[in-house]
Each structure stands twice: as structure tokens, then as C-alpha cells.
Amino acid sequence: MTGSVRIRRQAKKTPPFAFFDEVYKSFDSKEVLRGLTLLIRKGEVLVILGGSGNGKTVILKHMVGLVAPDRGRVFIDGRDISRLDDNRLLPVRRKVGFLFQNGALFDSMSVFDNIAFPLKEHTAMNGEEIRVKVHEKLKLVGLEGVEWMMPAALSGGMRKRVALARAIILEPEALLYDEPTTGLDPITTKWVTKLMRNVHESLKITSVIVTHNIQSAMAVADRIAFLYRGRIKFVGTPSEIGACDDPIVQEFLRS
Ligand SMILES: Nc1ncnc2c1ncn2[C@@H]1O[C@H](COP(=O)(O)OP(=O)(O)O)[C@@H](O)[C@H]1O
Ligand SMILES: [Mg+2]
């Protein structure tokens, strides 16, 4: 039995959170994903490691239908989402929170309004219910008393936490993080790494974290998937990847 047949059988037994079934994706003439197969279990923290420009962000975008595969399929919760239109993608996008690389807060809105925004768009909650929810999520990310500050007045680490509070405000089943520690100093990086694990445990969600920070990956992951030339070259626990004797994986870990 080949590796991908085995993974496909496994995917049928208990629907995983996500399953990439031999996904190919090119932009112009550049082949980015070349038959990528990856299974993400429900409730795990999976870290995707790989060099810059390898297609890590493209993988995350496939999981919320921001990018569609040229060939192959992407399943979320057992459902093939690879050819759905925007309307049909709405429930998927509600279920899967996405923390974009630069946080992307609305600069003209206060912290409170930034975090409350998805609730106003997607729910019929009243002002008091919204206030309670926003406060609850701010507390979860370790920020209180900053509701009326503007994003420009916050440090990089605080902005990251506000973006995280906004990404979990609709209580998603999964959270995708794109380079959550890039541009942060070492102390803030440690803090954000711990916070991702705390949020994961508190909300009992599936977390997928894209990074090239190896230390952060080792600290937060249940499993690490190493992306190389459009395919997953290795997937396993942090200690398994540490013990993996593939020279390309080892070179990356040492870099
Ligand atoms: N929308 C797009 N249009 C054209 N090229 C793209 C697009 N998205 C990604 N790419 C290309 O795909 C490659 C992988 O991108 P990306 O997933 O952002 O890499 P990573 O996140 O691993 O740094 C890059 O060469 C990038 O230029
Ligand atoms: Mg990227």
C-alpha cells in the first residue's frame, strides 16, 4: 500500500479536520504545490514548517477557499470544499478562523470595534452581549482595559493579541495562523507561542500554524509537517522530526 492510499483510508475512518488529497497549484508558470497530501487531525496543533516562498500561505488559503486547487481536492470536516462558490464557502469560513500574517486590524477602529466587527456582521447579538463576548476574548488573550485604544497605539505583540481575539470571536472550530511570530522580539515570540497553546487548550480547537521559527514550532506543535518543493517531506512529532535522518530536514532544522 502506498503512503497516500494509507492516508486516504485513514481519512475515511474518522473525518479529520482537513485533508489535502494530492493537491497541485501553480501561479502563472510557477508550480507551487505538486501533489501535496496532508492530513490534519481534529484537535491537534499542526505546525507547517518550510522555507520562505514554498507555499505555506497558499496551503492555509486552500483551507478557507481563498485559493482553489488546479488538481486534487481539499476536505474540511469530511466535505470537499475545493470547488465551492463563495456562498457555499461562508459556513466553512465561519468555522475556520484565519490569523493573517500582518494582523490586518482596521486602523480607524478601536480595539473593541475591531474585535466586535465579526459579531456585528454575522450575528444578531445586542450591544450588551457583544460587550460581554469581546471582554471574554480579550481576557483569554491576556489583554484587559485596552478596549478604547486605537491599533496604532499598541505594540506589535498587543496588536497580535487583538487580532487573535478577533479571529476567535465567532468561536471557530479551527484557527489558522500565518507566521504569528514573524517580526516579534524573542520575548514576545515566547509569549505568543505560549498564548497559542493556551487558546488551543481553552477553546478545544484544531490549530494550524505556519512558521519558519523552529523553536516556536518545537514548543507548540503536536505534530510538525515539513513542506519542501510542493510536497510534505516529513510529518511527525517534534521529537520524531528531531530524530529524522533526512539531510534536507536536518539542514533546515540547523539553519
Ligand atoms: N495570488 C498569487 N498570485 C501569484 N503568485 C502567487 C500568489 N500567491 C502565491 N503566489 C506565489 O506562490 C509562491 C508561494 O507563496 P507563499 O505561499 O506565499 O509562500 P510562503 O508562505 O511559504 O512564504 C510564491 O512564489 C508566491 O509568489
Ligand atoms: Mg507566507
CATH superfamily: P-loop containing nucleotide triphosphate hydrolases
Number of helices: 10
Number of domains: 1
Low-confidence stretches: none
Main β sheet profile = 6 strands, mixed
| Distinct small molecules bound, one entry per kind | adenosine-5'-diphosphate, magnesium ion
Morphology: globular
| Strand segment tally | 10
Over all CA atoms, what is the radius of gyration?
Answer: 18 Å
Would you kindly provide a written description of the structure presented here, covering whatever features stand out?
The protein has one domain (3-254): Rossmann fold (3-Layer(aba) Sandwich). It is α/β, with parallel strands linked by helices. Helix content is 41%, strand content 24%. The protein has ten helices and ten strands. The two termini are 35 Å apart. The strands form two sheets. Strands 6-7-8-3-9-10 form a six-stranded mixed beta sheet, with helices on both faces. The model has no long low-confidence stretch (mean pLDDT 92). The longest helix has 18 residues, at 186-203. α4 crosses α5, α4 packs parallel to α6 (156-167) and α7 packs parallel to α8. The protein has helices at residues 3-13, 56-62, 86-95, 111-122, 127-140, 156-167, 186-203, 214-220, 238-243, 247-254; strands at residues 18-27, 30-40, 45-49, 71-76, 79-80, 96-99, 174-178, 206-211, 223-228, 231-236. The chain binds adenosine-5'-diphosphate (ADP) and magnesium ion. Adenosine-5'-diphosphate is lined by residues 27, 30, 32, 50, 52-58.
Short description:
This protein has one domain (3-254): P-loop containing nucleotide triphosphate hydrolases (Rossmann fold, 3-Layer(aba) Sandwich), CATH 3.40.50.300. α4 packs parallel to α6 and α7 runs parallel beside α8 (214-220). It contains ten helices and ten strands.
